[in-house]
Amino acid sequence: MPHVKYLLFKDAYVDAARTKVLSDGSMNYVVELYDTALKDTISKLKQSDKLVRARDTVLNRKMSEFRAAIDKAAAEQSRLLAGKKAQKEKFMEKFGELKDKFKNAGEKIGGLERERATLEKEKTALEEKRVATALRHLKEVNRLRDSRSYEVTHERVRVQTAMIVKSNHRFAKIRDLEKRRGDFVTARSLQSQAFGTKKCLEALKESGIDIPQETIDLFAEQEKEFEAEAKRLNVGGIPEELLCLSPLHLRPTF
After folding, report:
1. What is the pLDDT of residues 116-151, one digit of tens each?
2. Whole-angstrom Cα Rg for the chain
3. Cut 0.70: pTM above it
4. How far apart, in Å, are the Cα atoms of 155 and each of 48, 147, 170, 204, 254?
5. Can the peptide bond before residue 2 be classed as cis, meaning omega within 30 degrees of 0?
6. Residue of 196, 194, 188, 199 whose CA lies nearest to 235
7. One-character DSSP codes across 20-74
8. What would the mean pLDDT of 67-82 be, rounded to a whole number?
9. Residue 173: phi, psi to the nearest 5?
């Protein structure tokens, strides 16, 4: 039996032991106290057991929920890992394609740079050639301008000389025509005189004056001779071509 000081109701037990002899009711009181305490303890134990079972139920439900959440999280994690893996593979594939494209683009850029350098050289050469051509053209223009001035002056002198020669030739023809026109006028005048004299003699003869017929016939023959001479010497008017100095047709000398 344990020591009195370790008993729960040691004071009551001491009092009961002290008064054991005095009354048996005291012992019953102690027993009743133990019984009441035991019942309270059993009741508390039952409540604790219910509480433990309730807690176990809650814990089991929470554990189930936690396991479901963990399984769901694990599945989601697996899905995400699979998605990330697929994305990584796709990214690596795209990265490889982009790397190839970048490499090809770099090669193309290098080719374009070389082509641009070639074009720059060609452009420089063409610019130098254009400048040289422009200078040569300028020299040629100046030479042609000087030559043209000489040609124009020379051509003007040549045209003036040709016009003078042509004018002199035309004037000579006109002078010849006018000279022959003088002979024609003289022949016409002699014809008119012979004709007038013949008519006068015929009129005098008709009026009764004795005029020999031989004289009248002489003037008639002179009239015919001078008429024939006038027809032979007839030059008419001055031709239009002798009064016009143009056009002047000259062969080019240049």
Report:
1. 888 888 888 888 888 888 888 888 877 777 666 667
2. 81
3. no
4. 144, 12, 22, 72, 9
5. no
6. 188
7. TTT-HHHHHHHHHHHHHHHHHHHHHHHHHHHHHHHHHHHHHHHHHHHHHHHHHHH
8. 79
9. -65, -40
CA dist 83 and 95 (Å) reads 17
Amino acid identity of residue 209, one-letter, is: I
Distance CA 253, CA 158 (A): 10
Residue range 202-240, pLDDT digits in tens:
888 788 777 788 887 888 888 888 788 878 777 666 666
Q: Which residue's entry shows tokens 């037990």?
A: 13
**CA–CA gap between residue 5 and residue 248 (Å, rounded):** 169
The secondary structure of residue 239, as a DSSP letter, is P
Q: Rounded to whole angstroms, what are the CA distances from 163 to 144, 177, 180?
A: 27, 21, 25
Which amino acid type is present at position 204?
L
